[in-house]
UniProtKB/TrEMBL annotation, chains A, B:
PROSITE patterns given in the database record: HTH_CROC1
Pfam family for this entry, one: HTH_3
GO cellular component terms listed in the entry, alphabetical order: cytosol
Molecular function terms, GO-annotated: DNA binding; DNA-binding transcription factor activity
Alphabetized UniProt keyword annotations: DNA-binding, Transcription, Transcription regulation
Record-given protein name: Transcriptional regulator
Species for this entry: Phyllobacterium brassicacearum
Family annotation (InterPro entries): Cro/C1-type_HTH, Lambda_DNA-bd_dom_sf, TransReg_Diox_bact_type
Domain HTH cro/C1-type as annotated: residue spans: 17-71
Amino acid sequence: MDQFHAHTFRKILARNMRIRRAELDITQEEVALRTGLTQAYLSGIEREKRNVTLDNIQKIALALETTGAELLNIR
Amino acid sequence: MDQFHAHTFRKILARNMRIRRAELDITQEEVALRTGLTQAYLSGIEREKRNVTLDNIQKIALALETTGAELLNIR
């Protein structure tokens, strides 16, 4: 697994969040409302700038009606 | 998904880490060596006391020769 770089999981999460939002046709603002996180913070996650915590990954998974495994799945 | 409580993902991660360590027959000390994290911190994650970050989940997944999706998979 040496092709991983330090932020590979951030890239995977960001991509899966964008895909899932598109599937649900919802905005970052809607996810912010559902999670209680700010839209700016969510935007930072989707731009791989944030080292998000597990508790917040759980909030995001619930808001996106998916699972942690799906959010970290390499599609 | 209302049967989730605030730390469900911590429970899932902790369980999968313990299972994976047992499968590999390695100690928390060995995972500490592989990740650069402390054994005490890893112990805290496995006792659901730590809100671990995504970058550290990646280090743990690599050390346990598994994936993020597997670590958050509900077995």
